[in-house]
Amino acid sequence: MNRHFLGDSTVLLGRSLRHIARSPDTIITTAVMPIAMMLMFVFVFGGAIDTGSGESYVNYLLPGILLITIASGISYTAFRLFVDMKSGVFERFHSMPIARSAVLWAHVLTSLVANLISLVVVLGVALIMGFRTGAEVPAWLAVAGILLLFTLALTWIAVIPGLSAKSVEGASVFSYPLIFLPFLSSAFVPTDGMPGPVRAFAENQPVTSIVNTIRALFTEQSVGNDIWVALAWCVGILVVAFVFATAIYRRKIS
């Protein structure tokens, strides 16, 4: 039955995407909050913030906003998964001659597509607000790859509460710390001016290395070791979350 995995996943992905197309408010909601933050920080606080980089604040801010967009979007992944679990959709699919893992992977792929759309919307608004970059195609591909890997890692984290939560609120609330994490990083201000303990945390959590890498790629600067630290964080989170999520899934469908 596993030989039909790709075909089954594609069909179920189409089902999920049709649901999103019929209710695009989830993508709109996902994009609205990061856009509102970007507008507020650039036009209200931006003039008072000295990043020491000499670049416009929207250029400095955008990498962090993109990560907030992803963190906001994956809460809907957990929500959609929870709804399917509680409505009995999983049981109906599992009674059919399809690959069981395809049901779960369809939700994961839906998260990637939905978050990609939200990221494009946010990037479009940033361009209107004055974001500019001289980055060439390889740099853009590197940024896209990092964002894709980060989205995949957070999506598998979202799968865990989506499968195990007892309520809709419980399935979605996990994303709040993830949305808050960029505020304790180099996303909005340099870490140099932070108090000692806060600075130590900010410089040793995943968002800072990812933000620094994306910012360096956009500004055509050397990424240094940040890119390896960012990739290590993303892959590490992805592997751990995948192992826990698939273990929970097997227990649920056994």
Automatic annotation (TrEMBL):
One of its GO terms (cellular component) is ATP-binding cassette (ABC) transporter complex. It is found in: Cell membrane; Membrane. Residues 25-252 form the ABC transmembrane type-2 domain. One of its GO terms (molecular function) is ABC-type transporter activity. Coiled coil: none annotated. The chain crosses the membrane at residues 27-49, 61-83, 104-131, 137-159, 171-189, 227-249. One of its GO terms (biological process) is response to antibiotic. This is Transport permease protein. It comes from Actinophytocola algeriensis.
